[in-house]
Amino acid sequence: MSSTTDSPAEPNRDRVADLERLAQSLNLTSLTRDPLKILLDQSEQQGISYSDFATRLLDAEIRARRDRKLTRMLKRSRLDRELDTLDTFDFTKRPKLRAASVRELLDCRWIEEARNIICIGRPGLGKTRIIKALGRAACEKGFDAHYVITAKMLEDMQASLADGTFRRVLRRYERPSVLICDEFGNEPFDARASNFLFRLVSARHRKAPTVIATNTGFSSWRSIFPSEAQAVATVDRLIDNASILNFTGKSWRAPKDGSLDNPED
Length: 265
Hints:
Blueprint: H1 10-25, H2 33-46, H3 50-77, H4 99-104, H5 109-112, E1 116-121, H6 127-140, E2 145-149, H7 150-163, H8 166-174, E3 178-184, H9 191-204, E4 210-214, H10 228-239, E5 242-247
Parallel strand pairs: 1-4, 1-5, 2-3, 3-4
């Protein structure tokens, strides 16, 4: 892309200014002076074609827009912006958790299939890390996700009755492509909370997936609901068309001497 008639300094600055002006007029917001100069200098040094330069230019804008969109989605999702990838998750410590099965979920086909994901295991086994990784994968694929502590969600619904905003609050949790409920069942549900939960689960059933992390196995869920009928009605809808991930092994939160290691489920 170089020319033997170009002056080495001033014309190059003029080209950068021209490109920046044109980029701004087209709302290509990432193509500011510094990245444009880098792209132009690299292209001239490498002697690439005009079509390759244009491709690099547009690729830079597309990547920047994708990154900004992901940042916005992660902020709205309430997920951590900086999350460890599953590459550093030690699956050898979780005997019943197949690494291949979990990594396969990162393709997010389960979202299109409206298939729930339920992670069961005692505290400190990595359930929250897995569900957040699935949430991030969803955002990277363009699906909106919403992470919430289950008790906080039910408190929001309860409080909304007082100011008449219940339908709006319920829609907040019905609407996301992926709803991620952490610490499900850590506290028993009273009758009203159970009704809220049943209504939400029913609204999302086979329409949009719900991801749950719970310390309590299905056989013990009756104890966290006020009645067996409410437990059965909610559980049936949650486990229908669901993938169940069982977390066993020793807790990563236990002291190093292992004196408080959790036994396997």
